[in-house]
Amino acid sequence: MSEREVAAGMDAFTHLGDRVRAALSERGFETPTEPQRRAIPALVAGRNALVIAPTGTGKTETAMLPVLDAVVRRKADESTGVHGVSALYVTPLRALNRDMRERLEWWGEELDLDIDVRHGDTSRYRRTQQANDPPDVLVTTPETLQAMLTGEKLRRALADVRHVVVDEVHELASSKRGAQLTVGLERLYELAGDFQRVGLSATVGDPEEVGKFLTGDRGCAVVEVDVGSELDLHVLTPEVTPEDERLAGRLMTDPDVASHVRAIRDVIEENESTLVFVNTRQTAEALGSRFKELDVNIGIHHGSLSKEARIEVEDDFKAGGIDALLCTSSMELGIDVGRIDHVVQYSSPRQVSRLLQRVGRAGHRRDVVSSGTVVTTRPDDTFEALVIADRARRGAVEPANIHHGSLDTVANQIAGLLMDFGEIDAVRAYEIVTRAYPFRDLEPEAFREVVRELSGNRILWLDEAADRLEKSSGTWQYVYANLSMIPDESTYRVYDMAAGRGVGTLDERFVVNFATPGEVFIQRGEMWRITEVDEEDEEVKVTPVGDPAGEVPSWTGQEIPVPFAVAQEVADLRAWARERFDVGESRAAVARWLGERYPTDEHTAGEALKQVEAHEAAVPAADRVVVEFFGREVVVNAAFGHRTNETLGRLVSALLGQRTGSSVAMDVDPYRIELEVPRGVTGYDVVEVLEGTDPDHVRTLIELSLKNADALKFKLAQVAAKFGALKRWRGGTNGFGRSRLLEALRDTPIYDEAVREVLHEDLDVPTASTVLGRIRSAEVAVEAINERTSIGRGGRSSGRELLAPENADASVVETVRERIQEDRVLLLCVHCREWTRTQQVRRVPEQPECPRCGSTRIAALNPWADEVVTAVRATEKDEEQERQTRRAYRAAGLVQSHGKRAVIALAARGVGPHNAARIISKLRENEDDFYRDILAQERQYARTKSFWD
C-alpha cells in the first residue's frame, strides 16, 4: 500500500472518537480495509449507506465502528436521557447472531457498552431481562423484530433506536422476509422517529435499487468495493485418468464422475482450508458420500441438517479439525468459519452474484485475491461457467429480485400495526405501509381488499363508516402465529434410533411421496434406512446402513435459475465457435482462442467444443431459435434462461394441448424447451405457435394455464394461511381439497397474491412477451428441422445424476421392484364399467381379465381413485370427469396390450398412462432396466410435481 493510501486509511479512523480509536489500537487495527476507508466518513456523518463488499473484508466493523462511536458519545451526553436500545443489528440467520456476538463482545467490553442477542431461541428469562434493562446494542432477526414491536416494555426500549444495521441485505431484498422488514422499519420509524440505516451486502447489479429498498427511498450513500477484478478463477473439466477408472468401481459411478471427485479431492489436499460449494442439498449429500468413501477429511453443511450438526462442523472447520466444508447457499452468508484459502464450485454457479458471493469468501488478506475453481460436468455447464466468470470480471451482476406489492405481507403488517396502535385509521395504515419501498405503488383499492379479507377472517374489526381498523380477539393470535413470512411447511425430524440423536430434517413432500419403511436415503453423507414414519410427531426414525446407493432426499427448493442475459451470452459463444469451425479452424485452435479469452485450459474448452463441432445444423443463437423434432420429441433450442423458457414452455404446451385435446409433457433448462407431443404434432406446429401468439396475451394465457396446476394450488394454500383464511396448512395427497380451495378463493386478494408469487418466482412473463414480439418483428428467427442435433440432445437428459447413474446398483433396483410389487392397485373394467377390485400388484395375473364380462380392457388405477370410477360410470360428465375417463381408458388400453408389465408401470409414483407408455415401449436387455426407467420417472416426478396437474 502506498503512503498516500495509508494516509487516506488513517484519515478514515480519525473520524472516530478517542475511545474507539484507542480500542482500535488495542485490537491491532492499524489500517482500515477498503470498505472501512471509503464508508466510515459517511457513516460517522450520520448518512444512510449501503456497503457492498465480499465476506471477510471487515464489513461488520465498517458499519459498527461508527455506530458504536455514536452510541458511546450519546451515552456520555447525560442530557439525552437514553434508557433503551440505541442500535439494532438485524441479520437474516440465527447462526450469524452467534458469530456477531463473539465479534462484538470485545468491543462492548472495551467501550463499556452492553451488547446482547435476541432471537426465537432466546430464553424467557433472558427476554425479560432485556425488556427490563435494555442493552445498548441488540443483535436480532427480522422475525424477532416483528415480535419486539408488539411488546409494551420493548416498545419503550425501541423508542430510543437511532441506528439500524441490516446485514446480508441482498438476501433480504429478494424475499418476502425482506419486504416484511421494510414495513417493520416504517413501524419502528413511527415509534422512534428517524434513524440511520446501514445495509451490508454482497455484490448486486442494482445497488441504487437495494439502497431504496433499505431506506424507503430517503437517500443512501452507496459504497461498492469491486470484487470481479480481485478474483483468480479457473474453469475446469477434469481429464479422466487411469486412477479415475479405478476409482469408478470403488465409488459405484462412471469414470467421468470419479474424475470430478478426484479433482476436488486434489484441490482440497493442495490447500489448508477449502469451501466446496454445490447448488443443491441433494448434490451435497451425494458428493459427501463419495468423499466419505475416499476418506477425505471433509464436513457437510446445509439447511436440512440439524442446528447441532451445522454448528459442530462450523466449529470443527474453523479449528482446523477438517480440511474442507461441502456446502450449499447456507455458506454464502457471512457465517464465521475462519480463514478460507480456496473455493471450489461444483458445476456452474448459475448466476454471477452466486459466483462472487461464493468465491469471494476466499482470501482477503491484504494484497491476496480470492481464488476459486469451477469444476464443470458437461458442455452446457462449461460454456455457462465461462460466461459467468467473464461477466463477474466485468461486474455484470444480476439485479435483486425484489417482491413488489406482496399482498400477504401487507396483510401481515396491517395486523402488526394494530398490535402497535390498537386501532388506526385505514388511510394512516396505508400511508405507513406504502412508505416502504416494495409497496410504494400499492393501489388503495388493493389495500382495501386486503383489509376486507382480514375482516372476513376475523383478524381485525373494520368500521367501514369511519374507515377505521380495530384490533380484534384474533389479532394477537394471528400475529404471533405469523411472525415469519417463510412459508409454513412441515419438516420431519430424522432420528437415528441406533445413536439416539437427531440427524437432520426432511421436507414434508419427500416424506409423503417417498419415505416408507425399508427405503434408503442419504443425509449428512451417510446412508439411512427408514424404520418408521411417525406422522403425529413428524419424525422419521432411521437406522444407519452401509449400502453405498439410495434415494437422495428431495428437499423443498427449486433449481437455481440461470438468468436471461447469461443464457444469451452462452448462445452467442456457441455461435462464435461454430463460425470458426465453419471457416476451417480445428477444435484445438478454437480451444486455444477460448483459453485466451476465458479463464480455462485447452482441454476443458476442447471438451465443451465437441458439442458445437458435432452440430451440423443451424446453431441456436441469441437471435435464432431452432426447433428440432424427431417422432414425438420436440426440442425448442431457445437460449432465454430458466424462467423465460418455463413461461414459453407452459404457453406452447397449453396451446398445443388445447388444439389437440391431449396433454403435452414439458421439461426446460436455460437453453431448451423439451416437449413430448401427441401424434401428428410436429416442430412446425411449435413454430406456428411461437410466431402466431400475440405478445400482449401472454399473461392471460399463462394465468389460464396455471388454473389447475399444483404449483398454484400449493402456493394458494400457503398464502391463505398468511391471510388467516386457514389454520396451518399441511400438505398431502388430497389434491381434490386443494382444487376446492382454489375455487373458493378465486376473485380474492389471496388468489391474486398466489398468482403474483408464482409469476414472480417461477416465470418471466415480461421477457417472454418481449421474445414473442421480437419473433413477430423477425428480430429473432425461428426455424424447424426434422432431426436431432448434438446441442439439442445436450439438455437435462444428458446430465449425470451423481447418485443415479444410468446403471443404478442392484440393491436400489431390488428395493423399487419389491416396493411396487407390494403396492396395491385398483383394477376397473372399462368395458362393462361394473367390476372393480383392489389388489396387490404381485397378485395381479399376467393378463388381467374381467370376471363379469371377460374383457381384457382393465384400467390399473391408484387404489383411492374412487373419483375415476365415478367418472367412468357417469352418464353425463363434466369437464374434469371427461378427463378422468380418458385417462382410465388410456390406462386400460396399455394393460390390454402389455398385461402385467403395464400394471407395474402404472403403479409407480407419478407415472400416468402417458409416461407408462414411454417406459414400456423401450427396448431393454433385462428386467432391471425396466425398473431403472421407472425409478428415473419417479425421480423426475418428484422434482417437477409442483408444476403439474
UniProtKB/TrEMBL annotation:
Pfam families, A to Z: DEAD, DEAD_assoc, Helicase_C, WHD_Lhr
Key word Cell cycle present: no
GO biological process terms on file: DNA repair
Record-annotated Helicase ATP-binding domain positions: 40-222
Start and end residues of each Helicase C-terminal domain: 260-418
SMART domains: DEXDc, HELICc
Annotated family: Belongs to the Lhr helicase family. Lhr-Core subfamily.
Name this protein carries in UniProt: DEAD/DEAH box helicase
